[in-house]
Each structure stands twice: as C-alpha cells, then as structure tokens.
Amino acid sequence: MLNKQYLSLEKALELLLFYISFRCLPPENIPIEESYGRIVYEDIISPEDLPGFDKSTVDGFAVRAEDTFGAKEGMPVYLTVKGEVQMGEIPNFSLNSGECASISTGGMLPEGANAVIMIEHVNIIDENLIEILKPVSPGENVIFKDEDIKKGEVVFKAGHKLRPQDVGALAGLGITEIKVVKKPKVAIILTGDEIVPHNEKV
After folding, report:
1. CA-wise closest residue to 176 among 47, 26, 38
2. Model pTM greater than 0.70?
3. Does 111 have pLDDT greater than 80?
C-alpha cells in the first residue's frame, strides 16, 4: 500500500500564496461603492489632510488656552464672546486675548483658538460674556488638522482587502474610484471515477 501524505488546508494555502501574487491578475477601476471585500492593486495615497482643519470634539467655547489658566469656580475667568461657529461653517473672525467663540461639535476652530472648553464648565452671563470655571490645556477637546491622515500618506497598501470602515475612509478623503485586482475566474475539474452520482450504488 502506498504511504500517501496529504497536505492540510492551511499548508496548501500557505504554499499557494507563496508561489503566486495578487499581481498575477490584471487590475480594474471600480467606484468605491463596489469596493468592499476587494483587493487593492496599488498603494492608495491620500490627496488631502484628514481632517482638513482644526475641529472641536465637544459643544462649548473655542478659547485661547492661556486665557483660562488659573480659572476655578471661586475665581472664574471672564471672556468676551466674539461669535458663533456651527458645524460646516468657516469662521469669518479670529480670536484675540480675552475672547472666545461658541462652537458646536465638529465645528472649525477660528484662528487664534487652540482649545475648547466644554459647555458644562462655563457659566453664560449673557450673549456677550461667559465665566470660565476651570482651565483647559492647549489641544484639549480638539482634533487638529491632518491628525488622522496627512496629505501624501499611504492610506492602504497594495494587497490590502478593503473593509467597510476602509470604504468610509476613502469617501472621507473624496476618493470616488480606485484600482483593484480583477476577480479571478475559478473552475473545478474532477478526474477519476471515484465520484459517482448520488443515486448510484457506491
């Protein structure tokens, strides 16, 4: 009797992947809406910074952090409200010493601001004046420009299998079409007479 040794599925796949490359298949361009589960053919480079601006992570007031140092409930710091920034708006003003701006989550920080104090740590005196009840550090409650992805950075390397969150990242970068590996056509060839129809006796 022949001493046959069979490869495990894992070993067979390891050998197969060792001897072939995804580049043995041609590329094709597809819209990102159809890219889930596909294999990236070439490195995808970010065309822009993400985020493209300094933005707030909370509702509150954009401030110059140094203006809040020493603030506490018994001895608040008073700041003049210069304006308001809603998400999606570009501020048309900048902050000077002693000034702040009301800001929504996701809003763009006006020039001069380097931190955001949460609304919970503020007393609003009137529409033009607030009390700061605690200090904030530079960068607190802020995501700075290019903190997630820098322009020119490799977002996904060739050979990467795209996941749902990857497709979302591509959309966030304004990428609408990518080059992926064309799907292979696979055929199964059966040889020998060991396999018989299910209605025949074995």
Report:
1. 47
2. no
3. yes
